[in-house]
Specification:
2 copies of one chain form a homodimer. Chain A has 6 helices and 2 strands, in the order αααββααα. Chain A binds a DNA duplex through helix 3.
Chain lengths: 147, 147
DNA sequence: ACAAAGTCTATTGGATTAGTAGATTTAATA
DNA sequence: TATTAAATCTACTAATCCAATAGACTTTGT
């Protein structure tokens, strides 16, 4: 399961991506609109800012806004940022590789083989899931439901 | 990341599946051979027994052995047993479905859509990864390395 | 009877998760 | 320049989970 942090981050990003202009949005607006505990959200948005996905302005008229285009923000990056590696075994991650202590021969490990394949398809799918894609999908899903 | 419990479970099952006959194997043998803390492994094997994947015999000559054929034991079942749902969001699990509290409309949620697709491909891949497949894969990988 | 095996109950230290509280800093504007 | 609205920083906490250990108990074969 994804952490609440990662989930809230995605929800907040979608909220920001849905706005026509990219003007700053105050934390409270996002928190209220998306049912996210405000103080918790503050920490999350800060992380997104440190990761250069969001930018912020302090003081009156301030708030958070997207720094990158929605089509350049993907789920893989967000999930890695909050929950660490996407792979399910340390021996099949790219960035955080670590040998399994109990493993006798990595090269011929059939378990590793399975989880390597899984990692590949997962990262592939999440890399291709952009904020823009999600927003588009919501509008087209709404069309379908309306009918 | 998968839990140690799930990983040890898979390693232990592969150990059992590799044996030509299906005679009982004592916990210590598996623990020593696979570098798994014995006491920890005991609890794991007990869980596998309760799930009717392994059976056991007490006393001299006893131990654990597979109850099901290796081709009928798949990674999805093992992972669910130890780590719970495979899906990354509660709203896209089959067995443990739970609404996301912060979600406004599930039917048109673009986030849910992404994680639903991910769940489908993941479960599909893990369901098709049987113990038998893993053992086979190890033998054929060994062939390749030998050359 | 004895030894060899699994089984059960309890506990523990440490890490992680999901927050909360409150003081501080920065910027706009009246 | 005083006020206000906003983000930012530091610290703390309760609850849960993870990985493992300890020790007593039960069952079974010889």
């Amino acid at each position: 399961m994804i952490s609440k942090k990662a989930k809230y981050a995605i929800v907040a990003l979608v909220h920001l991506a849905k706005r026509p202009d990219n003007s700053p949005v105050v934390i409270r607006e996002i928190a209220v609109a998306e049912n996210i505990p405000q103080k918790f959200l503050e920490a999350i948005l800060l992380d997104l800012r440190k990761a250069a996905i969001l930018a912020s302005r302090k003081g009156k008229g301030g708030g958070y806004y997207l720094l990158k285009s929605p089509k350049d923000i993907n789920m893989a990056d967000i999930m890695r940022l909050f929950d660490g590696p996407i792979a399910l075994l340390p021996c099949v991650t790219h960035q955080y590789y670590e040998r399994c202590e109990e493993c006798k021969d990595e090269a011929t490990c059939g378990i590793r083989d399975v989880f390597m394949k899984l990692r590949t398809v997962t990262v592939d799918l999440l890399k291709n899931a952009s904020l823009a894609g999600i927003v588009d999908r919501e509008t087209s899903l709404r069309e379908v439901v309306k009918d």
